[in-house]
Each structure stands twice: as C-alpha cells, then as structure tokens.
Amino acid sequence: MATSFVLSGLVEKRSELLRDITIAKDTLAMLEADLVSIEGAIRVFDPELVVHGRSKRVPAIHAAPVGQMARHIFSCFREAGKPLHTAEIAEYVMKERSIDPRDKRVRDCMVRRTYGALHKMKREGKVRQQDTKAHRKTWELLA
C-alpha cells in the first residue's frame, strides 16, 4: 500500500519534469527563431556586417577546477596498475565526479576532455602513449 503512494508520487514528478522539458524546448525554439529574425534584419541594414558568436561566455558543462582532471587521472592509474585506454580513464573520472556515464553526449565530452588532459600530461612527461596489437592506443603513467 505504501508503495502505491510512492509510485504515484514518482509518476506525477516524472510527468511534471516532462512538462518542464517540453516548455524549455519550446522556449528554446522561439528564442532561436527570434535570433534568426534579428540576424535577417541586421543583414537588411548592412549585408556585409559579420555578427560574431555569443556576447557572453557560457561555462562548459561539467567543467572541472584546475588540476582536478590530472588528480583523477593519476588516481585512476594508481588503482589500475596497468596501461589504460582513454575511455576507461574517462569512465573512472566520471564515476569519481558522480557524472552518469550512460549519457552518451556527456560521456563523449568527457572522453575528449580526458584525451586533452592526457596529451597535456604527455607534453609534461608524466604519461606516455603506446600502441597495442589491436591498434588501440593505451596510456601509462611514467615513474
């Protein structure tokens, strides 16, 4: 009986979130249409004017403080004790930062960020990249 109250509450919350998502998507579509209209009006007055990107920088999704990625990567290598692929390291970083690895978009973003952090660490002489038989590159910590 208690579970029916919990389930009905969860179902209600789910529908509430779906409604909010729909409203947000509609608002975004209207804003994008307004932006296209304004850019068209600008071209009417000055066809050669080039309007550049955003006026204000938007922070990156799941941005890490300086040094945080390196700390997680070092921790991952210490726990594994063997060479790892970029995706494996990215999954570890996501787990440590409580980010859901099932979200493909966020996961791809974190793999790219991990790859960038590993390349920086490679330039600094902290890690090295090596080829495997399957032509997949692995990374290992230098002593």
SSE arrangement:
Layout: H1 2-45, H2 68-80, H3 86-96, H4 104-123, E1 127-131, E2 137-141
Antiparallel strand pairs: 1-2
Helix pairs in contact: 2-3, 3-4
Protein architecture, described:
The chain folds into 2 domains: 1-54; 68-141, Arc Repressor Mutant, subunit A (Orthogonal Bundle), CATH 1.10.10. It starts with a helix and ends with a strand. It has a two-stranded antiparallel sheet. It has 4 helices and 2 strands, in the order H-H-H-H-E-E. The chain is flat and about 60 Å long. The chain is mostly helical and 143 residues long. The protein has helices at residues 2-45, 68-80, 86-96, 104-123; strands spanning 127-131, 137-141. Strand 1 (127-131) and strand 2 (137-141) form a beta hairpin.
